[in-house]
Write a structure and sequence with these properties.
This protein has a two-stranded antiparallel ribbon with strand order 1-2. By secondary structure, it is mostly helical. Helix 2 packs antiparallel against helix 10, helix 3 runs antiparallel to helix 8 and helix 3 packs parallel to helix 9. It has 12 helices and 2 strands, in the order H-H-H-H-H-H-H-E-E-H-H-H-H-H. The N and C termini lie far apart (59 Å).
């Protein structure tokens, strides 16, 4: 059974109260009505969530200060930052799929925040279950980390050499077809509602089906992202909190970057390289002894440098494509 230390339990309580309140204010008070998020509004919220994540890392440092273990606070803080940046970069890749989903189903921009709002809530619940289940399995069967390593290497290879978005068609998803068969559906389009009352019956709308597609796509991405963070740390507290901060910043980032996605045209290549790196990082302790005659561990400092460096180079490599697109559109 996964349990937190006393310090982590106290910090988790603070985290839950503050983040829970902020989620409520963001999703149900300030953005209660369906409306298009402006570039400025999206920028402010993105900056807010990123700043909050880095501020939380200071709390991680303070709560883990231990005179008997001087390096613990630094280690846990770097693990959180590396985990957050890794999960955030992997989550950004979701944006390409979300754009395709909304375009495919012709969802207008003012209704997209509502779908993403409930998609985020669902993602928080699903990922919590996956993270704590994964942490429990790893604590009992450490060899599962090697399975994660091979899975990540396969995902990296597939992502680098094959553009899955080209083959992605939400309308052809078996889950969507099955949902249409078993759920009582309204024939009228209600972009702002998931459930409606018609002739005394409660019916699901096509917007609810789109929410299912968004949730399912996030679960598919989590199959890669959650094993990836186990290469950074096996601390379930760090894994969960870094995941939550990455997910919470995704909705505002979606609208902030919607008009400049060309700046991230090479992000997928960068993400695939990150997946390969963390896959090798998981496998290295098991196989380095046979190859090099000693067990090699990649430090958290090196991991952080690789994550930041890969993301930076991916964006820099995308700038010429972005400038070319802007010039052609001018």
């Amino acid at each position: 059974m996964i349990s937190f230390s006393q310090k982590d339990s106290t910090l988790f309580l603070i985290f839950s109260v503050v983040v829970g309140l902020l989620i409520y204010l963001d999703l149900f008070v300030m953005n209660k009505r369906a409306h298009k998020l402006s570039l400025r509004e999206s920028g402010y919220w993105t900056l807010f969530w990123v700043t909050l994540a880095f501020s939380f890392s200071l709390l991680v440092y303070i709560f883990h200060e231990d005179p008997t273990n001087p390096g613990l606070a630094k280690q846990k803080t770097l693990e959180f930052l590396a985990g957050y940046l890794l999960e955030y970069s992997l989550s950004v890749d979701n944006l390409f799929v979300f754009i395709m989903i909304f375009a495919k189903f012709r969802i207008q921009s003012q209704y997209q925040p509502m779908i993403l709002k409930w998609g985020i809530i669902g993602a928080l619940l699903f990922r919590a279950a996956m993270i704590f289940s994964g942490a429990e399995l790893v604590s009992r069967f450490e060899w599962i980390l090697y399975i994660f390593g091979f899975l990540l290497l396969y995902s990296a290879w597939k992502m680098f050499f094959h553009d899955e978005e080209e083959d992605f068609d939400p309308e052809e998803m078996k889950l969507l077809k099955y949902a249409r068969k078993i759920l009582p559906m309204s024939k009228t389009f209600h972009p702002e509602k998931f459930l409606v009352k018609e002739h005394g019956k409660t019916l699901f709308t096509s917007t609810f089906l789109i929410l299912i597609v968004v949730e399912f796509s996030d679960i598919l991405f989590a199959i890669d992202s959650i094993p990836a963070i186990f290469s950074i740390t096996q601390d379930s507290f760090i894994i969960y909190t870094s995941n939550v901060f990455a997910i919470l910043g995704l909705r505002s980032l979606f609208f902030l970057l919607g008009g400049v996605m060309e700046l991230f045209v090479h992000l997928k290549k960068g993400v695939s390289l990150l997946l390969a790196f963390v896959g090798v990082k998981l496998l290295l302790p098991a196989f380095s002894g046979y190859v090099f005659g000693r067990v090699i561990h990649v430090s958290i400092e090196i991991s952080l440098v690789v994550i930041v460096g890969t993301l930076t180079l991916s964006i820099l490599a995308s700038i010429p494509h972005y400038l070319k697109t802007k010039k052609e559109g001018a």
